[in-house]
Design goal:
This protein is mainly α. The protein contains two helices and no strands. The longest helix is centred in the middle third of the chain and has 10 residues.
């Protein structure tokens, strides 16, 4: 069996092609189990990377500088007091 032709194919495609060649090795679930044990069961597509999002912070140095409708996490004059 040539492994190069199967490197980019998913296990169901490999399992369906092997009986045509006169070979039967195992079930599809066994193929997935073996790939998982070898660390090869991940997604083979390129994944998009996104930059980390920053949480906006409201900072005021005097009264009436910042207005917000949601005050559940607005920092007070003392640490951990909302």
């Amino acid at each position: 069996m040539r492994f190069e032709e199967y490197t980019q194919r998913p296990p169901p495609h490999i399992w369906a092609r092997e009986p045509d060649a006169g070979r039967h090795h195992c079930s599809i679930s066994t193929m997935y189990r073996i790939l998982r044990e070898k660390g090869r069961s991940g997604d083979r597509r390129r994944q998009a990377t996104h930059p980390a999002k920053t949480v906006p912070e409201l900072v005021a140095t005097a009264p009436s500088q910042v207005f917000t409708w949601d005050i559940t996490k607005a920092a007070g004059p003392v640490k951990r007091v909302w």
